[in-house]
Every structure is written in C-alpha cells, then in structure tokens.
Amino acid sequence: MALLVPCTAALAESAGDALTPVYVAAGQARTPPASAPLFPPTVSPSTAPQTSSPPPATSPSPVDLPSPAVPGSSRGAPSPGAVSGEIVYSEGQPQPNEITISQALDESLMKSPRAAAIRAQYPVAKAGLAQATVAPNPVMFLDRGFVAEQVRRVGPLLVPEPPWKILFRFLAAQSLYKQTKTDLLTTLWALRADVRRAYTELVMAQESRRTLFELYELTERLFTVAQKRFQAGDVPELDVLRAQLAMSQSSIDLAVGEQRLIRARQQLNVILGRTVLSAINVPLLPAFLGPKPPVLTKAVKAGILPDYAVVMPQLDELVELSVTNRLELKSLAQQFKVNQANLRNAFSAAVPNPTLALGASSSGNAPSGPKTNANFLTLNVETPMTNLNQGDVAKFQATERQLKYQLASQKNQIVGEVSSAYNNLLAARGKIREYQEHVLRESSEVARLSRRSYEVGQTDINATLLAQQANIQIRQQYLDGVQSYQQSFTDLEQATGRPLRW
Asked: Under DSSP, is residue 12 helix (H, G, I), strand (E, B) or coil?
C-alpha cells in the first residue's frame, strides 16, 4: 500500500482561491495549482531538497480527504487501486458535506440522542397529573364470630375524600408539570450552547490546520533556499540545520493539528447524532491577506465572523431582553405558583378524611335467639387537635419568602452575566476588526519581505525565522480572537435566553 505524505501547495491571494494542501502517494509526481502563488518560490518547483524529511505519515480518514479536482491542476484521475487524495480549501465555494451553524443547531434539536432524551422526560412529568387524581380504594370489611358472638358483619370500608382536596392536589401537580417543562427547555437551551462550542472548535481546528500547513510549506521553502545557498558557499551549514529544525518542528505541529481536526469533526458528529466517521465540513474563513477585504459568504457572516454592518444593541436593551426571556426566571416564577398550590394543599390536608363502614349485620342472639338481620353504619373521624399540618404550612410559607430573595438574586446574576458577555463580545469584535483590516495583511507582507531578503542575501536566517514565527503567531492570535468572539457570543446568547442574529 502506498504511503500518504503531505506535499507543498500554492497559496492563492486572489479572492476565490485558498490554501490547497494535496495528499499524494509517496513517489508520485506533484503538480502545483496554476493559480498565482501568494509567496512566489525562488527555486523551480521540480527542484526538491536533497535531505528534506517530510512530516510524519498520517492515515487521514475519508472525512479528511475529499477528492474534488485541484483548480488549474493538470494531474489526471488516479489509476484504479492507487492511493491518493486531496484537501482543497476554496474560499467562497461550499465544501462537500458542508454544514452551517444554523443547520447544526437545527439538526441537533431534531436528531441528537441528547435532545431526544430530554424530550422523553415530558411524558414522565405529565404522569404527575394522573397521580394527583388518585383516591384511596375502598376496603372490603368482614367481621364473623362463629360461636361466642354468633355475629357476621360484611360491607365496604370507605375513605371519602373531599373534592377540594383532589382539586388542590391536581392544581399543584399541574404547576409542577409546567415548572418541569420550563426546566427541560433550559436543558435544551444548554444543549444549544454545547453544539455551538463543538461547531466553533471544528472551525478553529480547520483554520489552525491551514495555518500550520502554511508554516510547514514556508519552512520547507526556506530549507530549500538555505540548502542551495550553502551548496553555493554563501551561508554556513548552521543555516541549513536551523532551517531543517524549523521544518521538523512545523511537521510535528502539523500532525498534531490534523489530529485535532479529526477529533473536532468526530465530536461534532457525535453531538449531532451522526455516526462518528460521517463526512462533515464547515465554511472556511477568509484569509484577509489581499489589498481588498474579501466578500464574506452568508454562512460565514451569519454564524462565525461578526457582521459589522449590523449595529449591536445597547447593554440596557440586552438586560431587558434577558429579564423577559431567561428561562431560569420563568422557572422561578413557576416555582412560586407551585409553592402557592402546595400551601393551599397543606391547608386543605389539615381537614381529616372520615372513615365510613357500612353493610349487612347478622346476629344469632346467643344463647336462645332469635336470629336477627339488619344494616350497620360506622363512622370514624380524626379530631384535628394536635396535628393541623402546621409543619407543611410553615415550610411553604418560608419557601415563599426564600423564593422572593432567590428571584432578586437570579436577576442580579443575569445582569452580571449579560454585562460580562457583552463587554467580552465588544472586545473580541474590535480585535477581529483590527486584524482583518490591516494586521493580518501587514504581518504576511513582513514575513514575505523577510524571506525575500534572505533569498537575496540581505538578512540572516534568524530574522527570517523570527518573522515567519511572528506571522504564524499573529494568525493564531486572530483565530484565538475569533474563538473568543464565538465564546462570548454563546455566553451572551445563553445570558439573554434568546437566539441572537448579529
């Protein structure tokens, strides 16, 4: 079986092109895309480094190796049985099996086993309504004295329950059912946050992998240049060794990044209720490396990157929105109703239920008779002198006072959560905007000029390596900003209790 190794691909700067890493079988000829490269190589693509060691061989799953055609590639279809695959990053073009964040949220609600388990609790909660209508069963009473008394009494023993008790008990069960329904909606709302985090992790893993692949490609090119300059006697062998070390480190980081991407895809598949190895992709983020900002696709603008054309609401508007829609406050309000229903039920339970026995009575009238037959009636009523259900009454009255404090505490906590998430979101939006407008482009240009300066002998390899590392670090910081934005957006959405669309 042929061995798969990642090879160098061109980085296209123009809109619609993107980083295109291509997996080919070891020993197979490599044809780079015909698009204009972002960092033009200084050596012929056919000249390979003599001692270059490729990154560790991986075994990507079919999820990682879709097979669309490489734009501009002259390579034909692989022969039957040949091991080859491609990962094509094409900005602005949907990938195979691509899913937006809105589609992921809808799919998790409909197909996720976790959502199904939450919904299955509704019938369990509703069963409490039937339980509230349960009344004591009648008892069959039989009293028979064969010899001494010669008495036989038979009939039902009834425990009639006042109708208001059943009504109060049913109202309490109904209020508890509504509270349970609100609590289950809260659990579903938390599942939405888990799906958003899993989706964001996949986006970050995909973009981080692209950045790491670019770093490997740049170090490979730098190693080629250092080796040629060393063979020409222009630089010491130390430059070659340092370039080779940088390439080895980037190869290790790339392998880790690929494994992170596989894990993120599998985790999103699991939470969506798919099989763990199902093919799934998410939209790619624009590079923001050209002189003009790229056009954001609808999928990216709606769920991943901030849309600066939409004005964010003020903090007081979000606080008002959270107080109106937060499920925790609705649950507390329902707990008030449950407690009031339980308090009424406790007052009604202070009135005891009577015990009524009736039926036929027969007596032999020993010792001489005659035998008599008649009906009997027995009534037993508990006297409420020491037990007035005062314990439950006091407990529910104290619970009502505690719920008032709990409601004020919950509102205070919600305001704090909204304020914190709102300010974090503003900070992340501002950071992302600065990176998109000029930082990413300037960092990429500095790295390009630094590498070009080394190629023409104006700087040493130390400055070039530092510039490349700084460029990759800035790219990672930008991705960290996007992840922070998504986390803040998720927190704010959870804090307000409503889906946000900006």
From this structure: strand
CB neighbour list of residue 361: distance below 8 Å, 6 or more residues apart = 151, 152, 153, 373, 374, 375, 376
Q: Residue 170, Cα to own-chain centre: how many angstroms?
A: 38
Q: Do the Cβ atoms of 10 and 37 come closer than 8 Å? A: yes
Residue pair 189/422 in contact by the 8 Å Cβ criterion: no
**Dihedral pair phi/psi, residue 372, rounded to 5°:** -125, 150
The answer to whether 324 and 411 have CB atoms below 8 angstroms apart is: no
pTM: predicted TM-score of the whole model, two decimal places: 0.73
Q: Do the bridges between strand 139-145 and strand 151-158 make them parallel or antiparallel, or are there none, so unpaired? A: antiparallel
Spatial separation of the C-alpha atoms in residues 187 and 496, rounded to whole Å: 15
Residue partners of 362: CB distance under 8 A and separation at least 6: 151, 152, 153, 371, 372, 373, 374
C-beta of residue 155 within 8 angstroms of C-beta of residue 365 = no
Q: Which two tokens stand for residue 487?
A: 């986390």
Dist. CA 92–CA 18, nearest whole Å? 9
- Give the tokens for residue 81: 């049985």
Distance separating alpha carbons of residues 88 and 441, to the nearest angstrom:
22
Is the Cβ–Cβ distance between 265 and 282 less than 8 Å?
no
Classify each residue of 77-107 as buried b or exposed e, where b means 16 or more C-beta atoms within 10 Å of its C-beta. eeeeeeebbbbbbbbbbebeeebbbeebbeb
- DSSP 8-class letter at 242: H
Residue pair 113/273 in contact (Cβ under 8 Å)? The answer is yes
d(CA 463, CA 401): 69
Structure tokens at 136: 């004591």
Tokens of 215: 């770093």
Q: What is the residue-level pLDDT of the chain in tens, covering all 502 positions?
A: 333 333 333 333 333 333 333 333 333 333 333 333 333 333 333 333 444 444 443 433 333 433 333 333 333 333 333 333 333 444 455 567 788 898 999 999 999 999 999 999 999 999 999 999 888 888 888 888 766 677 888 888 888 888 889 999 999 999 999 999 999 999 999 999 999 999 999 999 999 999 999 999 999 999 999 999 899 888 899 999 999 999 999 999 999 999 999 999 999 999 999 999 999 999 888 888 777 777 776 656 667 888 888 888 999 999 999 999 999 999 999 999 999 999 999 998 888 888 888 888 888 777 776 778 888 888 888 888 888 889 999 999 999 999 999 999 999 999 999 999 999 999 999 999 999 989 999 999 999 999 899 888 888 888 999 999 899 999 999 999 999 999 999 999 999 999 987 7
